[in-house]
């Protein structure tokens, strides 16, 4: 805490100081029991998503290791949230940021990134539809991004293969959950995109208490971690469920998988708003839907405390199609 004229103040020096230490909130109105659902309010980060954590750590580590030089451009391939986090960090550190993103991802994310000084290049989809992005759509954005990185001499963040992505959650998200819950946590669940959140958080929690059960949340019909055939590659859970096992994923900290349909994600996204007063995204709805399922499944005691991230704000999305309301 800084002091001015001998009087302490709580003034932050940059937006980087706003990243992390998000509240852990009980959804006791939505789920009065048995058991308890606790959620990490990651929309409170300055980029309105959990990806601010990994953006900060990956850039700080790249700078510390000499991989990213002062003033050097940065390039990333994103579904939007990582790009928003990187836009904040790069703005503070003075790195020009370019991102490539599938046109299937919400245009609100492109608007957000560009408002923070980033250049967002939206890449046409090769097989998905707006709001439904497949791994091949991501690959198209990656191919273009790698070309641009070479052309402009940019540092490529490479979130899908960057261990500092997962390490950010081992160093921050996991310890915060452990402390904020008073060491009372029976299960942790999370959707998986890059797998950074799940890999880092579950590793930390398992080290603290091996009895904590950690479950992956996958979209129904796109469950490669469970090991079933991909029957529904198109779904509403942007930034997750790409139909492949991410390179950062570690099976040794996983106790099982849970599936959620688009309809369930929409239902619980709506309930989180109506019951708890929080406007969140579709993966947040999926996480809470999965937490309710887990408490009813018999896989854990029905009076368990389950922790899940609310990954981002609902302001990052185009309204859901009428067919799913």
Description:
It is a single chain. With 325 residues, the protein is an alpha/beta fold. The model has no long low-confidence stretch (mean pLDDT 94). It has helices at 51-64, 81-93, 107-115, 135-152, 163-180, 196-208, 262-276, 282-297; strands spanning 2-4, 7-9, 24-26, 36-41, 74-77, 97-102, 119-123, 155-156, 187-191, 213-219, 256-260, 305-310. It has a six-stranded mixed beta sheet with strand order 3-4-12-9-10-11. A four-stranded parallel beta sheet has the order 7-6-5-8. A two-stranded antiparallel sheet has the order 1-2. It folds into two domains: 3-44 and 172-316, Rossmann fold, CATH 3.40.50.1100; 50-156, Rossmann fold (3-Layer(aba) Sandwich). The chain has eight helices and twelve strands. Its cofactor is pyridoxal 5'-phosphate. GO terms for molecular function: transferase activity. InterPro entries: Cys_Synth/Cystath_Beta-Synth, P-phosphate_BS, TrpB-like_PALP, TrpB-like_PALP_sf. Keywords: Amino-acid biosynthesis, Cysteine biosynthesis, Pyridoxal phosphate, Transferase.
Task: Describe what is shown at a glance.
The protein has helices spanning 51-64, 81-93, 107-115, 135-152, 163-180, 196-208, 262-276, 282-297, and strands at residues 2-4, 7-9, 24-26, 36-41, 74-77, 97-102, 119-123, 155-156, 187-191, 213-219, 256-260, 305-310. It is an alpha/beta fold.
């Amino acid at each position: 805490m800084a002091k001015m004229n001998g009087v302490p103040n709580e003034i932050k020096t940059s937006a980087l100081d706003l990243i992390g230490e998000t509240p852990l909130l009980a959804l006791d109105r939505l789920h009065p029991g048995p058991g308890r659902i606790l959620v990490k309010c990651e929309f409170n980060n300055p980029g309105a998503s959990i990806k601010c954590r990994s953006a900060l750590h990956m850039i700080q580590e790249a700078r510390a290791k000499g991989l990213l030089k002062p003033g050097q451009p940065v390039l990333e391939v994103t579904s939007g949230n990582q790009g928003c986090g990187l836009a904040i960090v790069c703005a503070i550190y003075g790195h020009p940021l370019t991102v490539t993103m599938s046109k299937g991802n919400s245009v609100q994310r492109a608007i957000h990134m560009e408002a923070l000084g980033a250049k967002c290049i939206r890449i046409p989809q090769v097989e998905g539809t707006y709001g439904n992005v497949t791994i091949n759509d991501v690959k198209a954005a990656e191919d273009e991004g790698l070309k641009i990185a070479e052309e402009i001499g940019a540092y490529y963040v490479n979130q899908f293969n960057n261990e500092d992505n997962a390490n950010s959650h081992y160093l921050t998200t996991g310890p915060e959950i452990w402390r904020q819950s008073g060491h009372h946590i029976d299960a942790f669940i999370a959707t998986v995109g890059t797998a950074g959140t799940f890999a880092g958080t579950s590793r930390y929690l398992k080290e603290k208490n091996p009895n904590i059960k950690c479950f992956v949340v996958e979209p129904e019909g796109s469950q490669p971690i469970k090991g079933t055939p991909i029957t529904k590659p198109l779904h509403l859970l942007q930034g997750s469920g790409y139909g492949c096992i991410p390179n950062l994923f570690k099976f040794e900290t996983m106790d099982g998988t849970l599936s959620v349909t688009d309809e369930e994600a929409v239902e619980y996204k709506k309930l989180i708003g109506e019951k708890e007063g929080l406007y969140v995204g579709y993966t947040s709805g999926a996480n809470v839907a999965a937490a309710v399922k887990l408490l009813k499944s018999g896989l854990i005691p029905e009076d368990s405390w389950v922790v899940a991230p609310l990954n981002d704000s609902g302001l990052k999305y185009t309204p859901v199609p009428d067919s799913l309301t």
